[in-house]
Each structure stands twice: as structure tokens, then as C-alpha cells.
Design brief:
The complex is a heterodimer of chains A (about 260) and B (about 280). Chain A is α+β, with helices and mostly antiparallel strands and about 260 residues long. Chain A is built from 6 helices and 10 strands; from the N terminus they run αααββαββαββαββββ. In chain B, strand 6 and strand 7 form a beta hairpin. The chains are: A alpha+beta (about 260), B alpha+beta (about 280). The interface between A and B is large, with 58 and 52 residues.
Amino acid sequence: MTMILPRRRFLTGLAASAATVSLGGCDQVVQNDSVRRVLRTAERLTMTTQRALLSQDALAREFSEADISPVFRANGTSMPTGEAYAELVDTQFRNWRLVIDGLVAKPLSLSLADLKALPARTQITRHDCVEGWSAIGKWAGVPLGLLLQSAGLAPNARYALFHCADEMEKTSDGSGQYYESIDLIDALHPQTILAYRLNGQDLPVANGAPLRLRVERQLGYKQAKYITRIEVIDSFATRARGKGGYWEDRGYEWYAGI
Amino acid sequence: MNAPETLAVPQKAVLVKRHSIAVRLTHWINVLCLTLLLLSGLQIFNAHPQLYWGQYGADNDPSFIDISAVESGDTIRGVTRIGTLQLPTTGVLGASKDADGELTARGFPSWLTLPSYQDLATGRRWHFFFAWLFVLNGLAYLLYGFAAGHFRRDLLPSRDQIRPSHLLQEVRDHARLRFPRGDEARRYNALQKITYLVVIFVLLPGMVATGLTMSPGFDAIAPWLLDLFGGRQSARTIHFLTASALVLFVVVHVTMVIASGPWNNMRSMISGRYAIRTKEPRS
């Protein structure tokens, strides 16, 4: 029975790891770097599997007006600090511009009025916070794909990086600034829009005025608010702490499909 | 539990081969996964310790279960609310002591969460890693169970076991902690078989299905899941209730293991051999 030894060793291993975990050594195991690296492999597995099962344009569920949450909970920043943003609010975002640049043929700079003049998509979708709650709201905005196409993607374009006006955490190196990134599969998805309206009203400040991202097949922290600039890039490894987003830099998954 | 095969006949006890290597391996991997899934799951629950019914649910919506802290003078109290029933649960649920001995607002106490302190990102990493291991292990077990006839042979109640009079007798025997002996101990009793089948084919797959219903990505892959469970928030509630049912199952399961012979049962799940005591000496 050559099976015996590996089996015993395996069972001993299991027992040992269970014991370590239950004996309050728990938190030490959790903080171990190699353990963290191993656990991170699940994200890739989830993303690969979901993407394999997901046809490129499979839509997130769209609801009816009757399903809309009475109150759409605002989360994260509810009022960006700083005079620049306060002035934008005071002037109803008349002087606000959205810049689209990076790996594009023709960089764009658009006002809110420019965006509102473009073809819009309206969708009633569910917003899922990583914490566990959900809210349903009606969003209207410009499909991101439309803007990227008119800017013209360079052959090496891989991600859309969203620069946001809100600073979540005061840091000396600016890594507390909110930012997010999605790849082109999500960026060009028909439900991925830059929303300027929520439930028939101009997007409230608490929900990201004047413009926020909706990427409906992922969790709430991917839905960047207070967008000022969309930069098309080939890698986010050199940005902030290199994980592709404010929460990703703090341990959350870049692929937030679960 | 293969076909009984007598290995040794020392006086009154015979050792039979009870659990195949596949069953033993998948059983212990499952123990590891379910333990870590529970602890990391409670960490995730603590990020928003309210449960709702329907498609949506957040702070302003009526919750069905709420495990939170309320201010009380210059301290806090833990309150658990189920429907309209409010229970004071300070020290365990809603408010409990952290590592520094300070009373803190948290759904489940630090000794029940992984890690012990509030860290949703890490809780999620552990949860999804062990969810994958749990699913792969479960699939391997199901494949084996059908291919090797394990479900049909060992878990499907026999015709004589499902007679009401027999079932009633089993309930009475269980209540008195009187366990089958002799030849009857070669197979599982009907209550045991039914319980295992419910766990294997209802509760555990239910955990996976409700878990996936909470995934916005998976909802786009299989929108019917939302209709099956009545929405993401209903699925989250069912996920929690099913996990509670599994905890209850484990408590009863371990109690029964201890009551019906801890050493013999443990040996059978480790080495595969199970001792059957015959009523009379065989000589």
C-alpha cells in the first residue's frame, strides 16, 4: 500500500493546519505572505471561470421601475473635499471637463453638456456592495465604448483607468486618491456607461456627481465616482500601489465579479 | 462503506471495512473547508450584519435579521433582532470584546471570525479560496458517489427502513441514544441516511448556489438563480440560514459520533475500519 504514507502525511498536514488556525495562531497564518499569495490564486480562477462562462455581452439583470430601492444608499465619499470640487458644485459643473487620453488616437475633452448631447442608455440595475447590501437604481449615461471608439483605441490599449476627484485617505504620496480600472472586455460592454443621472435626477453629489462609472457585472467599489479623467493604459502596475484601484491596493480583488 | 468484508474475528467484535479512501479523504477536506468557510463567512457577514428579503436591501430598507450595537449611556449594547423579536446579546452578538478587551460593535465575536479583527478583504480571500476547494472536493465526491455506487448502496434507505413503524422505532431509539448493534450496525440507520442525503444533495449545493447568486458576474451568467431564490438579498439570507442548518447538523453529527463510540467512529473515518459488536460470542 504505497498510498498509506502520502495519505498519512496529508491527514497530518490537514490536522496541523486546522490546529494552527484554531489555536489563535489564526491571525499569524492570515498575515503570512506566502499564505496570502496562495489565497490570491482564487481570484484568477474565479475570473477565468466567469469569463469563460460569460459571453462577452451577457447582460446583468435589468429591473422594472417598481423594483427601484426607495433610498439609494450612497457609500464611500459623499462629498469630496477641496475648493476645486466645491467650486464645480457651486457652478453646477459648467466648467467641469472629462478628459479621455492615454493610448488613444485622438484625446477628448468633453463638457457635461457635450456628454448629454451624445446617445444615452438608461438601465435599472442592482448595485452590490462588497459589504453585502444591494440597492437598485435607474441610471442614464453615455456608453463608455462609444467614447473610447470615438477617441480611437491604440493597438496596445488594455485597460481604462478612472481618475476620480475624491481623496479617500490623506497620504503624502497621493495614493489615497480614489481610482479604478477595468479591462476592455468590461469597458466595451453595452451596459458599461458613464452615468450622469440617477432615478431621473441629475446625479447627486453623494452618488458621484457629475459623472460615475457603471460596470454592472462587478461590485460597487468598481463603480468609480467623481470621474475627471479616463486614461487608456496597457498596465496599471506602476500606478499608486500597483493593484489597479484604491480598494485593490488595500487587499480587495481587482476582478470584483463575486 | 464497502460491502462488509470480514477482516478479523476476535471474540465478539469484527472489523469491517466501512469507509473507502475516497470518502475519508473528501470528508476531511470538507471538514477543513467548511470550518474555514464558516469563520471567513462570519467575517464577511460582519461587514453588514443585516439580512433582507428580495432583490435589494440596504440600511434604509427593512431587515429580517439584524445583529448590531446600540448606544447605551457611554457604552454599547449588543442587540439581535429576528423579525420583531429583540434579544439582548451583549458579549456575544452585536457587541463583544476585541483583542484589547474593549467592547466593540461587531456582529459575530472575534473568536468566530477569520481573521479575528475586522478585515473584509482578507475574509473574502479566504472564503473564495476555500469555496473553490470545497466545490472541487464536492464534485470529486459526487462523481465517486455515483460511479462507485456509494449513494445507492450506502445512503439510499432500504425498503425495510422506510416503513413508518421502523422510522418511528428509530426515532425512539435515537431519543434514548440506543444505537444499532450487530448486523444492523453494518449499515446506516434510515434517519442517518436521510440526514446525509439532505446535507449532500440539498444543504451543501444550496450553499454554493446561494453564494453564486450573490455574485454580480454569475448573475449575468445564470440569471435564473435570481428567480430561484427571489433575489440577491434573499439568496444572502438563505446562504446564512443554510449555513446555520449545517452548523446544527455538525453539532448533532459530532454528538452522535461521541455517543455511539468516538474511537470506533474516528478510526472508521481515518483508517476505514469499523468494529461491529455481535450480541453473542461467536465461538
